[in-house]
Amino acid sequence: MSNYGGTIKKIRKNKGYTQKEVTGNLFTQATYSNFESDKSDILSTNFMHLLLQLQLTTDELSYIHNDYQFNKPTEIVKSFFLLPYNNKTEISKVISSIDEYHLFGNRNIVLEELRSICESLLIIETTGDFKKAREKVNKVWLYILQINFWKDLKFTSSSKKYKITFIICISNKYH
């Protein structure tokens, strides 16, 4: 579990829970104590149980575990959603951040898809060629349709400023 035991312990104590309260009967006291001391790992199902007991998401745990900082992919995704979609310089910065992340041998499908979207935005901004831009994001669009996670992806035009509007619709399995 990537040495999350110590972080879980810190959160548990901060919330005022005992080991027994968060584990129920899933662990022996020794097993859980070893996990919190980063001496052993636990099954992923038990790990998810602990997160539920602590009312904690995996993103929140990761943020706390990383000294209250987002990991690089999360930072890049956040910068993407904050960028002005018609600003070539800012779009290029996001692409550069993605490329830099991949230079170190990291692979992240979400970042690859965001790169395609950024490239598409640049095509629209520089050439106005919606057909070419659509070809660039077609794979992403098909994936979105397939998983029914993102409901709508539209190119809209307003005073020569182009945007991609993302409306996130979490499917029933995420409710």
TrEMBL record:
Superkingdom, natural source: Bacteria
Annotated Gene3D superfamilies: Tetratricopeptide repeat domain
Signal peptide residues on this chain, from the entry's feature table: none
All residue ranges annotated as the HTH cro/C1-type domain in the record: 8-61
The protein's name: Transcriptional regulator with XRE-family HTH domain
Organism lineage string: Bacteria, Bacillati, Bacillota, Bacilli, Bacillales
